[in-house]
Design a protein that fits this description.
By secondary structure, the protein is of the alpha/beta class. The chain is built from 10 helices and 7 strands. The protein has helices at 7-25, 43-58, 75-84, 95-102, 146-156, 176-188, 197-207, 218-221, 223-235, 243-256; strands at residues 65-69, 87-92, 114-118, 131-137, 157-170, 209-216, 262-271. Strands 3-2-1-4-5-7-6 form a 7-stranded mixed sheet, with helices on both faces. Helix 3 (75-84) links the parallel strand 1 and strand 2 (87-92). Helix 2 crosses helix 3.
């Protein structure tokens, strides 16, 4: 794709649409995880389950310090901090998201609490080896320079610490109608070029991170796309000139489940001892 988004572009998108996304998705801004087609969980429950799956892979113990790269509304950080007895430091490029996160009653610097600040993943303002784990839930999608971001994440992790990524990726070439749908998603939602599995392995290797799990959960997550599309359609009338953009986004999201090369990965990687 051309015209890769910058941090300011991504921040502006979420300044405008975070409230809508959280209303539709139950407080978080990421896909849900449904156990099966018969699973009757709400979108909010499924979204919280995805957060738990990320936390499970971090292998946390109480008192540890964890980095949330792209913290959104702060809900996943608060859930992980309280549930695991750790401190989560969340970063975002959206001023509105920062206000929402900092207004959370669970905010603080102690274990079981979370703190938040404006920061770009490509320029993390933390000391080397200052975190016992890190996660990025659907933030790598928006990052233009993934080598820079992963390099910074690896830098701030202690040796042996884990990074967990939950995000969409491509497992094959894209053409025809699939390419048209993804082009709309890229343009409307400030998405950078999507990685393949091999692309992730290479970027992580260069950062000094070794993949220990790569699990595709697209079938468990795909229900989210239709739910978000329906929510965008309902909200379009309230957004004035932006309404047409929301309708276009809804149409693209509703077709996303049919894009065969589009997967959704739960990826765990470990920082090498060095």
């Amino acid at each position: 794709m051309t015209g890769e988004p910058g941090a300011a572009d991504v921040g502006a998108l979420y300044d405008q649409l975070t409230d809508l996304f959280t209303a539709v998705l139950g407080g978080s801004i990421h896909v849900g995880y449904w156990e099966s087609d018969e699973d009757e969980s709400t979108t909010e429950e499924a979204s919280a389950r995805l957060t738990e799956l990320v936390a499970d892979r971090l292998d946390l113990a109480p008192g540890l310090r964890v980095l949330d790269v792209g913290c959104g509304s702060g809900r996943p950080a608060a859930q992980i901090a309280a549930g695991r007895g750790v401190h989560v430091a969340g970063v975002t490029v959206s001023a509105h998201q920062l206000r929402l996160a900092q207004a959370r009653p669970e905010r603080g610097d102690a274990p079981g609490q979370a703190s938040f600040q404006l920061a770009d993943a490509m320029e993390l303002p933390f000391a080397p080896a200052s975190f016992d784990g890190a996660y990025a839930i659907e933030s790598m999608t928006h990052i233009r320079d993934k080598d820079a971001a992963l390099g910074h994440i690896a830098r701030v992790l202690r040796p042996g610490a884990r990074l967990v990524i939950a995000d969409i990726y491509l497992d094959g070439p894209v053409s025809g109608p699939d390419a048209d749908v993804l082009a709309q998603i890229y343009a409307l939602f400030q998405v950078a070029t999507l990685l393949t599995a091999d692309g992730y392995r290479e970027h992580l290797r260069r950062a000094g991170l070794e993949i220990v799990e790569f699990t595709d959960i697209r079938r468990n997550a795909r229900r989210t796309y239709a739910a978000l599309g329906a929510g965008l359609r309902r909200a379009a009338a309230r957004y004035g000139d932006a309404g047409d953009r929301l309708v276009a986004g809804a149409s693209a999201l509703e077709r996303l489940s049919d894009v065969n090369p589009l997967g959704y990965v739960l990826l765990s990687a470990v920082r090498a001892d060095r």
